[in-house]
Amino acid sequence: MKTNPSDITVLENSSLARPPVRNESQLVVPAIVADTQDDAGERFLEFFAATIRNSNTRTAYLRSVGDFLTWGDIPNLTSLREIRPLHIAAYIEECGRRVAAPTVKLRLAALRSLFDWLVRTGVMDNNPAHAVRGPTHEVTRGKTPILSPEQTRRLIESIPTETQVQLRDRALIALMTYSFARVSAAVGMNVQDLVQTAGRSWVRLHEKRGKIHELPIHHKLLDHLDAYLDVVGHRAEPNEPLFRSSRGRSGLLTTRRLSRHDAYTMVRRRAAAAGLVEKVGNHSFRGTGITTFLLNEGTLELAQEMANHSSPRTTKLYDRRNDRITQDAIERIRIE
Question: What contacts 300, CB < 8 A, 6 or more positions away?
Fold first, then answer.
């Protein structure tokens, strides 16, 4: 497993009752796991390495498990087998007072998955998290700020086109808007993921759970991508990153891949320069594209397919067509 050092720090810096144990590969194993015996340490590491392919999920689950194993009396237990449903129920109850419901549900899911794995591999006899219920949380409207078509046009047009970095920024924002691409899929693209088939241009996105998603390129997006590639000049390098990091403030690009965190910083900077007051982030363009598509008589079913959502309920979270109707209705409450 390629381990993120920040993942390990979560457990390494925790105030465990006994010091953590390092295995042969120098990965940190919490003391309570090492004390359980029956190869618990190896099974613990296998859970994160072998069963979780998405790096973001792995990081979130490792943080959740680390938080639980350092909570309350858990560090004083001598074995994972001593953990009872009451321990987890009390932990989940306490989490509900300090973090949001989605975070509580994620932490419970992490514990259930870990203990399920330890039961299957013979480390534990039963899953103490199985009977614990999480908080009720139902979302019918997404919280991601989205932009109107006018705001999006103003943002894209406000980006100068004099340097490699500026052209990259414009092309990346356009890609996330016109293809509904998640930022991880966008920055994960290589040059070869711009595909020419039967005289048409396609974009190939490597999505969650190893899915490959292809869709035609909007003509305006194609213009921005062509302008970017013409200046950067790496069309003949198919295996190289499409979007590259910048070299300081020189306006030039390196050969390294742009990270999603740097993409977020770029988006916030460009939004502020365009005078947008909303807290725009990478995901805002996915919601903007979906809502604009639906406003222009696109169907929910096609939007779901274009966004590569497994359920139409997820796509509906990005549908903000009723925001304007709701505001108009509220304004009819006239008390003068």
Answer: 294, 312, 315, 316, 319
The residues of the chain that CATH labels 1.10.443.10 are: 149-328
Neighbouring C-beta atoms of residue 278, cutoff 10 Å = 12
Report strand pairing: 194-197 vs 28-29.
unpaired
Name the residue with tokens 């921005």: 224
Q: Nearest-CA neighbor of 246 among 260, 230, 262?
A: 262
Whole-angstrom distance between the N-terminal and C-terminal Cα of the chain?
A: 66
Cα(318)–Cα(291) distance, rounded to whole angstroms? 6
Distance, CA of 23 to CA of 49 (rounded, Å): 14
Q: Look at the alpha carbons of 326, 331, 334, 336 in this order and tell me if their dihedral is positive or negative.
A: positive
pLDDT tens per residue across span 179-227:
999 999 999 999 999 998 877 899 999 987 678 889 999 999 999 999 9
Between CA 111 and CA 118 the distance in angstroms is 11
> At a CB cut-off of 8 Å and minimum separation 6, what does 304 contact?
311, 312, 314, 315
- How far apart are alpha carbons 143 and 164 in whole angstroms? 33
What Å distances lie between residue 227 and 12, 151, 223, 285, 302, CA to CA? 47, 22, 6, 20, 29
Give the tens place of pLDDT for each residue, 137-169. 565 555 778 898 999 999 999 999 999 999 999
User: Token match 């939007």: residue?
Assistant: 303
Looking at domain 149-328, does it have CATH number 1.10.443.10?
yes
Dihedral pair phi/psi, residue 105, rounded to 5°: -65, -40
Candidates 112, 49, 42; CA nearest to 83 is 112
